[in-house]
What does this fold into?
Amino acid sequence: MSGPGRDPATTPASDSAADAVANREAWNAKAPDYAEAGRRAWSGERPPSWGLWHQPESELNVLGDVRGLDVLDYGCGTGYWSAWLTRAGARVTAFDNAPEQLATCRRFQDEFGIAFPIQLASAGQLDPERFRDASFDLILSEYGGLTWADPYATLPECARLLRPGGRLAFLKISTLLEVCWPLGSAVAGDELVLDWFGLHRLVEPADSSVAFDLPPGEWIRLFREHGLVVESLRELRPPADAAPSRHAFVMLDWARQWPAEELWTVRKA
Ligand SMILES: C[S@@+](CC[C@H](N)C(=O)[O-])C[C@H]1O[C@@H](n2cnc3c(N)ncnc32)[C@H](O)[C@@H]1O
It folds into this structure.
């Protein structure tokens, strides 16, 4: 997710290390705002669910049976997906770029008695000694590393980390929503305001955080380049009676009319 005042005019070629530092500062500052929602998710108050309107995994059937799988939570935030997957029987490793987010995750591990390894690391720059080739059956990113780091670095990295037949599942803002989000506005509108072609790196002037997206055709080209086969692209549509999302950058009416969130799954050949 990026935010108001995004400025695609300031999108030179990506400097991954500098972007990771900017995102670390931004997410350290945001961490307290994510703690309460994280606690509710960790508590098991609702079943595992995806995205802004908490669409249940049991309805979307993205992941299937995860028992015994080696899973990497790729930009785990407060770690609720890791908690859900651990409860479901997966062997989870989680990492994030922001120490404050990981501190929240650690507190919840103690509070809820669910343990899994967590590491401070940056998507697209993982140390191959710590994160070995072909060591995961599933990589998951819900607005995590696949949103906040450059896909030209993260997709080859995910391909390296997955075992043959392993899957990458990631949720992101739809490209359509990205290009309908006017500069200087806190909320997406219903006009195309950013260029589709060349969409890549999006800088948030308010806190200098950097998000990434590509047009779908470029995502698909990049998957294929790295031996990743598209299984599905779910364009999430919230139910008409969905409770308002606490993230106000897209309204329910918008998301009922057009896809606001894309949930991709790809498989390593
Ligand atoms: C919206 S949260 C997503 C995690 C979780 N699904 C949640 O909602 O709490 C975004 C997370 O991405 C992390 N992040 C940002 N840049 C990253 C990077 N380069 N590598 C790994 N994680 C990153 C942030 O620190 C933050 O915890």
